[in-house]
Write a structure and sequence with these properties.
Length: about 500
């Protein structure tokens, strides 16, 4: 039973003479603590109080009131939610439970309105204002809504912040798994495929209790296709190599094998061969599988002529120093578009069809794109008319001797040292924890089970192989375009003033 009613507390909250500590401290008998003891129904019935709680010190109270209104289905202006979420007053670690409740309230309201974009700005502000390196349940909730709204650029700022700690009071294994999976999807949508591979690998190597999560299977599927698009050498085995192979539980590998791994491996090998007819044949044979798993768009990008041509040009940089545009076009035509077993008439018809793709103008545009993206260091001398110009491939031109490079290097070293310090502290804390010592003692005695034996986890609610669904609901669009790379059920992308 609350000692005070909210209506009796409100004049003191709004008074300029009130000590800010009364509004920002969670200690007993403070105004903020008394507000938290009021019922959600009472706080929600107080009208648009959130709109008048504008002072920085009042934002913690506004957070409590806004959460209550969201829980009871009342309206809160989107601008007010962004203001509250980004307020420094609610960024302290002690407010983590309140921020989590606020995040879930915003998410429920956006889902009820079927407008996922409504949740993006408040949740983004909430995460950017919080501890920069701590994983919370709000992280994957935010990314899920950003993907649904196709607000990938808005999510990039959150994904870019490295996480090396977990909010142990609120987060679980499933929160890490979903965060890594959704982060990989965001980066894949932004065509940052190499970065996406890192997150899909993290999801793949996440701890598994009671069986493999279906999300880990989806992470492998999307991850191996992004691995191809990143241009890294090797196929599916290279994607799984190293620490990923050692950390991934055997049940995950078994589940992947049972869910069409061979079809993905055959398709990846066909794409890595550089032969588009072979890649298209595998794509056509497995189109239904790619469609069911929501990866047809990624698969089409892997087999696209643009990707295969650019990969062939990159291979040439490892062999040649100079090469004419005509020679590059001829090499691309012979390696990417070769067909076997066709009659001379069929070959002639095929060559006429692909002529625009391997013309000097088309090849030059690919080279210029690779130069602009930093994948190739080269120059084109068009004054040499023979061969439609001469391409010279260069080494990395950056000498890293200027002030900007040194400042960037210094910043990276400081970041690495900070991460090393936090990881060292984490290692000490784990080695001294009662749970870890008990686990080590039981393992030495042969008591109990390791990972994947028994136990339960919030990860189970997101589906295990042989159980429920994948819990993801995300699919890559089948046109392989730049704008609509992925689709997710639910909502449009127009933001309104209030929930």
């Amino acid at each position: 039973m609350a000692q005070f009613t909210f209506s009796s507390l409100l004049p003191h909250i709004l008074s300029p003479a009130t000590d800010p500590v009364q509004l920002t401290s969670l200690a007993p008998n403070t105004l903020l603590r008394n507000v938290m003891q009021c019922s959600d129904a009472e706080l929600a019935a107080a009208g648009d109080v959130v709109e008048v709680l504008l002072a920085p010190a009042q934002q913690a109270v506004a957070l409590v009131v806004a959460t209550a209104r969201l829980k009871t289905g009342r309206a809160v202006r989107a601008e007010s939610l962004r203001r509250i979420a980004g307020a420094p007053a609610v960024a302290a670690p002690s407010f983590a439970p309140l921020r989590a409740a606020f995040a879930h309230g915003v998410a429920r309201a956006a889902e009820h309105a079927r407008r996922p974009l409504l949740a993006v700005a408040p949740l983004r502000a909430l995460l950017l204002a919080g501890a920069p390196n701590v994983l919370t349940p709000a992280h994957h909730v935010f990314l899920r809504h950003a993907i649904a709204a196709k607000a990938y650029a808005a999510a990039a700022a959150v994904v870019a912040r490295p996480l090396d700690a977990v909010d142990a009071k609120a987060a679980a294994a499933a929160d890490f798994l979903l965060y890594a999976y959704y982060a990989g999807i965001v980066l894949a949508a932004l065509k940052r495929f190499a970065d996406a591979v890192l997150f899909f690998r993290m999801a793949l190597a996440a701890p598994s209790r009671g069986g493999a999560s279906a999300i880990q299977v989806e992470a492998w599927r999307k991850g191996v296709l992004c691995f191809v698009l990143s241009g890294q050498p090797g196929g599916a085995k290279a994607f799984e190599k190293g620490s990923v192979a050692r950390s991934t539980h055997f049940s995950v590998h078994k589940a992947i094998d049972a869910c069409g791994k061979k079809a993905y491996v055959d398709f990846v090998d066909a794409c890595l061969s550089g032969q588009r007819p072979r890649a298209l044949l595998e794509l056509q044979a497995n189109a239904e599988l790619f469609m069911k798993s929501g990866n047809l768009g990624l698969a089409k990008q892997c087999a696209s002529s643009n990707h295969l041509i650019q990969q062939q040009i990159l291979k040439l940089t490892q062999t040649y120093i100079t090469l004419s545009v005509s020679d590059i076009a001829k090499t691309v035509q012979d390696s990417v578009f070769q067909i076997k077993g066709a009659s001379p008439q069929q070959q002639q018809q095929y060559l006429e069809e692909i002529a625009p793709l391997v013309s000097p103008v088309a090849i030059k545009s690919h080279i210029l794109y690779l130069i602009g993206s930093g994948k190739v260091h080269a120059s084109i001398n068009e004054s040499i008319r023979e061969g439609n110009g001469m391409v010279s491939f260069h080494d990395e031109p950056e000498s890293y001797a200027d002030l900007n490079a040194l400042m960037q290097l210094d910043s990276m070293l400081k970041t690495a040292m900070s991460v090393y310090y936090r990881v060292s502290e984490m290692d000490k804390a784990i080695s001294l924890s009662k749970e870890y010592l008990t686990k080590v003692g039981n393992d030495e005695k042969g008591v109990g089970g390791g990972i994947g034996r028994g136990g339960s986890s919030r990860m189970d609610s997101f589906g295990t192989i042989g159980g429920g669904g994948s819990g993801a609901g995300v699919m890559f669009d089948d046109d392989g375009g730049d704008d609509d790379v992925m689709m997710m059920d639910g909502g449009g992308a127009d933001e309104e003033d209030q929930y």
